[in-house]
Amino acid sequence: LCRYQHIWNIDLCFRPAFLGGIMQATGNEPPGMLSKRGEYILKDIKRMGKYYQVPIQVSAEHLQRLLDKVPLSLGAMRFITAIDVTQPQFLEPVSREFWIRFWSQVSILQSQILVAAQAGLSSEQAQKLLEMVSSPAVKNRLRGTTDNAVKYGAFGMPAIVAHFNGEEHLFFGCDRIELLASIIGE
């Protein structure tokens, strides 16, 4: 979507949401919970990384950490939510940096300060954001965006909601860009 936002002249708005909350609210199970599907996903993710030239390094243990009781992504989503509240101009670069770290560096979320620095924030800005992560305002905002995703029909991530000609269109997955293009006439 970032690649096409200027070509298609669309307004792209990132909305942090907590995948674990979406899965719980919808009763959905991660595809990796099915052993054969999990094996396939590992291979598919690596193929996609090679195709898109993204240095993805993923293992069964890495995917299992996604399913842990307190998933790695919760801290990242709270940090990204704090960015959204205070400095939304950094939302895309910080999201991108977390994504790259998550899929290419298994130790990803241990240094939110480093992620912020890579995205162009100062250490002072990052420290203030870290202080906000546990605040009720950030937790409630993330819960709200997660609830909104479910209201739009999300059952997993990535979920894309396109508002076009007065209608809302939900797309699930990174392989639906062509369908989105068709809806908006591109």
UniProtKB/TrEMBL annotation:
It is an enzyme of class 2 (transferase). Its EC number is 2.5.1.18. It comes from the Eukaryota. Residues 1-184 form the DSBA-like thioredoxin domain. It catalyses: RX + glutathione = an S-substituted glutathione + a halide anion + H(+). One of its GO terms (molecular function) is glutathione peroxidase activity. Keywords: Transferase. GO terms for biological process: glutathione metabolic process. One of its GO terms (cellular component) is mitochondrion. PANTHER family: GLUTATHIONE S-TRANSFERASE KAPPA, GLUTATHIONE S-TRANSFERASE KAPPA 1. Belongs to the GST superfamily. Kappa family. This is Glutathione S-transferase kappa 1. It comes from Crypturellus soui. The lineage of its organism: Eukaryota, Metazoa, Chordata, Craniata, Vertebrata.
